[in-house]
Amino acid sequence: MPIPTELVGSLPRPEKLQNAYEDLDQGKITFEELQNLQDEAAKDSIERLEQTGETYLTDGEQRESSFATYPITDTLAGTGLADNLAGDGQFFAIFDDGHHRQLPRLTGGPFRYKTFASEFVQKNKEIATKPVKQAVISPSMMMLLYPLEEEIEGYPREQFLDDVCDEVEKDIRQCFDAGAERVSIDFTEGRLANKNDSRNPWTGKDMLQEFIDLNNRVIDRFSPEERRNMGIHTCPGGDNDSVHSKEVPYEKLLTKMFQLNVGYFLIQCASEEDKETVYKLVGENSRDDANGVPQVCFIGVINPLSPDVETAEEVRDRLVAAAKHIPVERLGATDDCGFSPFSRDLKPAHGSPDFARDVAMQKIANRVEGARMASEELGV
Ligand SMILES: [Zn+2]
Asked: Residue by residue, what is the 3-state secondary structure of the chain?
């Protein structure tokens, strides 16, 4: 079988759409007007992705406030926040360029999603002529909505975590039921969990194993056949062309991450200086039998934070090098991250989000072609 390819999820939103999110916050437009622009950008994303030859199509998260907050708020500023949440939660991440992203804060129970990703799948299925994938958020990210130290009166942490697991399970199942062939779970907080950033207390609490165990509580509710098409995405962040945890030694995550009982991983690597070590760690730690499924390792061969377009030959060479350490039947090709996980992302290194959309399509097309060339060279 040729080396498979899959994108992580997001594409830059057109500047017009980004401004519309802010217009909604300021009461200048209605939610329906925002949705019309989201639908327009989603259709354009799907049609352009089809032209790149990408295996699975998405709307590039055009309808989502962010990869992490789509279930609980309509915009990053908190318009349309779900029940029992306030806007002033802990930092999720502080990025290298100094900007940060903040999560809402849980004020009471029960915790419930207001938007499920299957809504996007349904709409995308009507447009796409090829299989559709959907990225969803992890239980471990939702866990950070609960205060780090205190207990919420009347809503113990354990009860909250039970609710989180139920909501995430429902999110994933509904995506499959709506016709998604693949569902990948974003796990950017995995690398960040070992950062020990004093400005961001949760990163100093050694939570990685807790994250993995919580995520497996949900993953293990699915059959091997379902888990074959369930993935995990890891990265050191990707927002405003900046990262949040690239300096955290990758082995701290890669020696543990494959405990997650999913069938595939979308693994940042193109922006790593020492790619060989990553291939090696992935080869050594990934499993050919994770409770009934082999773990296919999609290596990041494209850096979405850089406007420089990788050539198909570069992609090919990276995959051929990776195949020295990872069994080729468990090797795939992906991008290091989504191209714009948050709805407001001006893509400063690119000059504009509209230009970054064009660049993303070129990069994806070259990844697809490079994977084809690598398959040919490796005889698969
Ligand atoms: Zn990512």
From this structure: CCCCECCCCCCCCCHHHHHHHHHHHCCCCCHHHHHHHHHHHHHHHHHHHHHHCCCCECCCCCCCCECCCCCCCCCCCCCCCCCCEECCCCEEEECCCCCEEECCEECCCCCCCCCCCHHHHHHHHHHCCCCEEEEEECHHHHHHHCCCCCCECCECHHHHHHHHHHHHHHHHHHHHHCCCCEEEEECCHHHHCCCCCCCCHHHHCCCHHHHHHHHHHHHCCCCHHHHCCEEEEECCCCECCECCCCCCCCHHHHCCHHHCCCCEEEECCCCCCCHHHHHHHHHHHCCCCECCECCEEEEEEECCCCCCCCCHHHHHHHHHHHCCCCCHHHEEEEECCCCCCECCCCCCCCCCHHHHHHHHHHHHHHHHHHHHHHHHHHCC
